[in-house]
Amino acid sequence: MSSSSPARRVLLAVDAPSLLHRNHHARAYTDLRDRGGRPAWALHGMLRQILEALDRFAPDALVFGLDDRGSSVREERYPAYKAGRAPKDALLVEQLERCKAFLDALGLHAVQPDGLEADDVSASAATWAGRHGWDCVIVTSDRDTFAHISDHTKVLRLISGGIHGSPLLDPARLRTMYGVPPEHYLDFAALRGDASDNLPGVRGIGEKSAALLLAEVGPMEAVWADVEHCEGASVVAALDSWAEETGNRRTGRTLVGHLRLPGAREQFEFNRSMMAGHTDVDLGLRPDEPGSPGLLPLEPVRVRTSVGHLGVPATTELALRVLTEPPASRDGRQEHQAHRQG
C-alpha cells in the first residue's frame, strides 16, 4: 500500500460509567471538589484518562456512552438483573448524574439512550465505524464489549495500569487471553455467565470448558444441534479426540451431560440475549458536517471554562492541548499512526 494512502478515520467510544466507577474508588482519597464545592474526583479522573487516550489515538470523533438511570429494558425483562451488586456510594451517584451536563458543557458528545446502557452505545459505535469505513477504539474496564472486537474495532480495557498500562485488545490478543475469537465471545460469555450482572452460566460449564467447547466444536448453534439430534455424539468425539492428542483427560461425555440438563439451552439463550449489545443506537454522528456533535477539535473557550471549573490547572492545560489542537485534529494523525496501530 502506498504511503500516500489516506489513513482511516478513528472513532473513540468511551464507557463513561465504567470509568467513573473505577476513578471514584481509586481517587476518593483525594476528596477533590470543583469550584462549587461538589465532589469531582471521579469526573476529573475520567477526564484525565480520556485526555490521555485522545493523545494516544488521535481520533477524529469521540462519543461517550451513558446508562439510562431511570429505566432499563433488561431489568424490565429480568428484575433480578444486577441484583447482587452493593448499593452505590451517594457521592459516586452524584457524579454519575452530573456527567452528561459536564460533558455537554465541555463540548463533548454524550449519548444516553432510553432504557439502555453505555455498553449499547459502544456496540453501536463499533457497528457505525464498520459501516462507515472508520476504525473504532472502545475504552472500558468491562468485558462486555469484547464481542465487538474486529479488524476495525479494538478495546482498550482499563486496568490498574491506566491508559498506557492497559491492554489494547484485537482479535489475536483476545484469542490468546480467552481461547476464543471475537465472533464466539458472546457464546463463551453466555455459557460462563456473569456474576456481576446476576446471570448464572450453564450449570457445570466454566471458562475453560466453554473455551474448549467453542474451540474444538463451536459455534454453539452447531453444538446444540448435535446435542438435540444426535445426543452429542459428534461433540463427544471431537472433545475426546482433542484429549487424546493433547494428553488431557476425556471430558466429552461430562460436558454433553451438562448441556443436556433441563433448562441448559434456555439459560444459554437467555444469557445471550441479555448480554448482546444493541447495535442500532443513533449516535448522532455526522462526520461530514463541520461542528456537528462528537467531532474534534473543540472550542478553546468552552474547554477552558468547563475544565477550569474542576480547579486543576494542569488538567486544564492538558485539555486545551489535546482537545483544541493537534493531535486531536486530523493534522496530527500521521504523527500518532504508530500508537493507534499498537
Task: Describe this structure as you would to a colleague.
This protein has 16 helices and 8 strands. The protein has 2 domains: 10-170 and 278-334, Rossmann fold (3-Layer(aba) Sandwich); 182-275, DNA polymerase, domain 1 (Orthogonal Bundle). Helices cover 50% and strands 9% of the residues. α8 (182-192) crosses α9 (207-216). It is of the alpha/beta class and 342 residues long. A hairpin with a 4-residue loop joins β7 (193-194) and β8 (199-200).
In short:
Helices cover 50% and strands 9% of the residues. The protein is an alpha/beta fold and 342 residues long. It has two domains: 10-170 and 278-334, 5'-nuclease (Rossmann fold, 3-Layer(aba) Sandwich); 182-275, 5' to 3' exonuclease, C-terminal subdomain (DNA polymerase, domain 1, Orthogonal Bundle).
List keywords for this structure.
single chain; about 350 residues; alpha/beta; Rossmann fold; six-stranded mixed sheet; disordered C terminus
Q: Count helical runs.
A: 16
Low-confidence stretches: 332-342
Mind telling me the CATH superfamily name of the largest domain?
5'-nuclease
CATH fold descriptor of the largest domain: Rossmann fold
CATH top-level class of the largest domain: Alpha Beta
CATH architectural designation of the largest domain = 3-Layer(aba) Sandwich
User: Average pLDDT across residues?
Assistant: 92
What's the helix and strand layout?
Layout (H helix, E strand, L loop, with lengths): L9 E6 H12 L13 H17 L3 E5 L7 H5 L12 H17 L3 E2 L6 H15 L2 E6 L12 E5 L4 H4 L2 E2 L1 H8 L3 H11 E2 L4 E2 L6 H10 L3 H11 L2 H14 L5 H8 L4 H12 L24 H9 L4 H12 L12 H5 L1
Parallel strand pairs: 1-2, 1-4, 2-3, 4-5
Antiparallel strand pairs: 5-6, 7-8
